[in-house]
Amino acid sequence: MRVVSGDKKGLSLKAVPGTTTRPTTDKVKEAIFNMIGPYFDGGIGLDLFGGSGGLGIEALSRGLQSMIFVDRDGKAIRTIKENLNFCKLTDRAEVYRNDAERALKAIEKRELQFDLIILDPPYKAQKLLHLMEEIQKRHLLKEEGIIMAEHENNVELPEVIGKLHCVKKEVYGLTVISIYKHG
């Protein structure tokens, strides 16, 4: 697992020890960023299921100004911090150990809005539809912002969720990438 492109291209990233997380492959990571970027001119991101931090670090490497990483697993939090430190990105990131829904409530209090929200929850416990409804209810996505949802191919997300519209959907084996924007 490595950073695919940008100013940190080629740096290796550690995976979370054990089998509780499923790292996004470099091939799928490249495809995701070709769909949503591939590069950014600043902006703020939220990686709500940070895992190893690979997707959020990729966004930072490709020009996103800052990223908030959230994960409820202590091993994942340690791995994210190690990877950010190794990539010299700690000054552009915040890392929190929290449940996704509680994190959204806490972020709302800070009155933050995001250019990019990454939703890559564990395949076994996906609540993507509910999370996207919560993101809208809490006004966490900028008007021109993007939500990237990674999910299993047996999960069918609606084309329209509130004011969000699916603008792209690609299948990579068992993995589906769905991109949502305000309609």
Automatic annotation (TrEMBL):
GO biological process: rRNA methylation
GO terms for MF: methyltransferase activity; nucleic acid binding
Species of the source: Priestia filamentosa
Matching InterPro entries: DNA_methylase_N6_adenine_CS, RNA_MeTrfase_RsmD, SAM-dependent_MTases_sf
Keywords: Methyltransferase, Transferase
Domain of life where this protein originates: Bacteria
Name of the featured protein: 16S rRNA (Guanine(966)-N(2))-methyltransferase RsmD
